[in-house]
Amino acid sequence: MELFLAFNIFNVIGYKIEYPFLLAVMIAIIDILPILGVGTVLNPWAIWQLVSGNYGFAIALFVTYIIIFAVRQFIEPRLVSKQFGVHPIITLFAMYAGFKVAGVFGLILGPIGLMILRCVFEPQLEKGLFKDLFDEN
Q: What are 59-67's contacts with CB under 8 Å, separation 24+?
């Protein structure tokens, strides 16, 4: 979504990107793969633009990468934890553990497993047991 928005902003300010939605989806598919990310496409593209002499577009691509990186590192774990009602550190641990156990699908399965555990231990949570782990604040 961030890429699609950025590509449309680029089109508005004069850097023409054909098929911004398709390009954003293709980069998102690369982003899903392990080890690869948005930087796998945006950084070489920005370097190419820099070498080609299109400095403004190169800077715009680098800034887009930095913004997307910041959103992924700082905002996404907080959003996921607020949705689940679990502390962000525990959510990150569940995502990491899931990734180590089941790979990319574990990133999704880890927090789901955490939610299952939360539902199983709901009575204990209401009594105050595990309150520090599953507290939203």
A: 60/6, 60/10, 60/13, 60/15, 64/2, 64/3, 64/6, 65/38, 65/39, 67/2, 67/6
